[in-house]
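ok so for the tutorial part 2 we go from a plain amino acid sequence to predicted structure tokens. step 1 is just haveing the sequence, like this:
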Amino acid sequence: MICMAIPFYLLQRDTKKTWCQNYCPRSSLYMTLGRKRKKKGKVTPMSFIKGRLKYVVLVYFGISHSIAVMSTVQVALGNMPPMLIPRFMIILPISSGFPQLVTLTGIPVWITHLAFRMFSMMMTTTIIGLTLSYVYKPRTWCTICPINTISDIYIMENRKRQSPGIQKKALYESSVEKRHN
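step 2 — the prediction. this is what the tokens look like for a chain of 181 residues:
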């Protein structure tokens, strides 16, 4: 949960995409693998960059996160059994045996349930991101990433409140940032 809060703390503190540009482990993974590719990927579709797809992904992961939290509450209350396997995109169970490297005892089952739900969301985004980075450019996932979308909304709203001179500087910095990605 801390990893999900840090990007927003940095965004609020710096008013720019500090997490995305400097710390995001997925971005680093995709860039590293992208450099090792022999064949260049396709151009990222405009529907990813300027279309509604990023908002569809944001809504989907908002729903997914809500389901994870609500189901965890139900498990904690004893109203439903825990789901102790990862699922791809909430729906598809991945039943292949994952190795249990560490066995912890005395942990409430609802924490294990929440951990599997969070792992499922991270696994889903990583698989989708790896696929997109193979087909398109390495950081294509970043264009539709929910953290990036929320950051864009926050930055745009922040710019609306600034004076026109500051807006021009911010737009220039944003265009420079896009050229480097």
